[in-house]
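Researcher: Let's try something more involved. This one mixes different molecule types, so please make sure each is placed in the same coordinate frame as the others.
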Amino acid sequence: MSQELTQEDEGIGSRIRSNPRPALIWMVGALALLAPEFGAIVQLVTTTVPGVGVVELPTLLTRELIPNQGYQLPNGNWQGTFLGLSPAIAWTLRVVLIYVYAFAWLAWLWYGYLTFRRNYRFADWTPTDDRIDRLRDHRWGQFGFVVVFVFVMFAMFAPALGPTTLQSNIIDPYSYEVTYYDEEVSEVSTASVGTANLAAQSRGTPDQNVGLWSYDEYDRFHPAGTVTNGKDMFTFLVFGARISLFIALSATLIAGGIALVLALVTAYYKGLADLVTVVASDAFSSIPLLLLLIMLSVVLSGTWISNLYNGAVILVLIFGVFYWPFYWRTIRGPAFQTVENEWIDAAKSYGQSPFTLMRKHIAPYVVSYLLIYASLGLGGIIISTSALSYLGLGITAPTPEWGRLVVLGQQYVPTVSWHISIIPGLAIVLVVTGFNALGDGIRDAIDPESEGTEGGAAAAGGGG
Amino acid sequence: MSRLTYFAKRIGLMIPVVIFGTSLTYLILYAGPINPAVAILGPSADASQIRAIEQQLGLNQPLWAQYFDFLGRMFTLDFGQSWVISPNTSIVDVIANRFPRTIWLGFWAILIPLFIGIPLGFHAGLNPNSWSDYIVSLGGIVWRAAPNFWLAVILLVGLSNSEQYLFGFEWKTFLVDTPQLIGAPPLNDLTDPRQFLEAFKRILPASFVLGSASLGNELRIGRTAMLETKNSNYVEMARAKGVSDRLLVWKHMFRNALIPLVPVITAEAGLLIGGSVIVEEVFSINGIGRLGFQAIIQGDIPLAAALTFIFVLLFVVINIVQDFLYTIIDPRVSFEE
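Model: All components are placed in one shared frame. Result:
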């Protein structure tokens, strides 16, 4: 349906040329935001391009610039930490800076959208405007968005957020050293991280416990305490978030993609195609997902595919292949409704090919519905993954996964080491609630009339 | 299209579903990398022993022959014997032994959320935007997002030390003395009130956890359904005619608000099958969910296959029952799709 271009519409480039100021302000903002992390980008580029040595420039948000690991002399001064601050304050400062930075980018994106809407968009109004305006006073949806955003940043900036590194504290503690002030011999000495971890175990007795926001005997700061084997729990949590998010996002992309293609095809061709898909979706969901995950994890353990990314890749594939019925069932209705519209008939009579028709006239409507359920499904996948780790399957140790913390700390819940089990559990509840709230927000924005019946939401909550 | 042909068609559609589920089970358990003979004998077996076992189990046949043999045995409910979990007993016996516990667990896991979730949801829907509504809604949301295994851990700890947390209320001696928190409930004689109470008390925490997701959903959907019913025209009409508030709520609104809840309730039933695996594992209830998990972990292939087949059958039956209920409750459902 080629539209006659009107005189005013010459493309976005010329519109910006005729009024460059708002766009320039926005670009300057981007440069200002890129500056603190410029070193990281240079490093990334120079490491990927062969033949050039790694160029190290100082960047604002690294642990090297704001270190939080040091030792305390008897006079109370800290050595080795940022400006001689105590590790707790140095670490807090770094975390706060990282989040300020992340939210600044978010504000920049929002400002860019508003600038585009005010100055450069050809249309005065689009349906999307209404959706966004509906979200503006949807507090519950905003809460969900903020929680999800914080969680994603948690995973993205994991290396800089942890008080120590994954490699030195969790994967290979005996190859790294920690410097501390030894009070017995009154001098600064070193020990391997593994030895220090042994002394920092949390095992439920007051003298064997490193709780929230405390230091261990080796002057190391633990914002979320330590695990039963003395490893730092906050580091464990950030890297666990990373792997959970990776699994949930990739699996949802695969499952959502399959569901979208099938929904378009079944809505367009109906009849036999629909029938076959109904049977297939029932067949794929006839075996309880958790049981299937257990089966495949056990059967495939030890094969090459189960070792890719510590078992995450195989989980992504299983979720991707077996989660699509959940998405497809929820978007089938909207897809069928969209096909009923008159413009579809019009497009058909213009002789548009089925593929173009699906892509241009059906998919945009269906994708927005898919977003709602993807948000719910993400929460479900995170819960299922942690349930598998709880059973000792799925992600292989020592790679962090939240569910394993729950089982590690299970026997210590009534004691002073309660944090090991409780904190990850609360984190899962918060993150999944965030995803659910975001889904609710998207639903109310897209379809304020919808009554919120969710047969699929149950599937997202179950299984763990 | 009459109701009868509709259901004949539904049941006809279920046959490929069952065949697919069974084939998938076969593919994973028998055609996968696991060698069942090695699983039986342990890693220290020598080649002649392995060959003997393979001979005995027909594992030296070509795969397709094994596959049709497997399908045939499943559909005739000829499951054979368990190898590892309880050697030399027939699988039917093993499953029949443990099935009642899972049924007992599932039964309460469906009922408890109904009796807690729906009244609370309706209450919230009748008093929207009040404090109680906010508390109930938030509770439902959090309840839905909490992983079952974590809830189970928290609940176990809380109940075993309840006198510390609940102002001296001691769960273990409450009503009947149950010193053991985990483990299977006694189901020998449910007609005896004392026995019944004990069995109920023992299963209560596990059922509560297993039904947690359903509880959250029913709360939420009950609330929206009540809100919609409350603002519908016929309620306005009845109110205008002077029907008393109480009668209005109980006679007119309650029944109509239940309609959207029916598919939700039956959809939960499918979830219970998957959820029972982990809940039974945490509470160490020897039901079929835990049996399935143990069978897979310990390499008891025939048992795992038989259980998976039973789960597939259950799924199919629940689906058909759900359709059936739906057509009865909501006559507007057409048989055309």
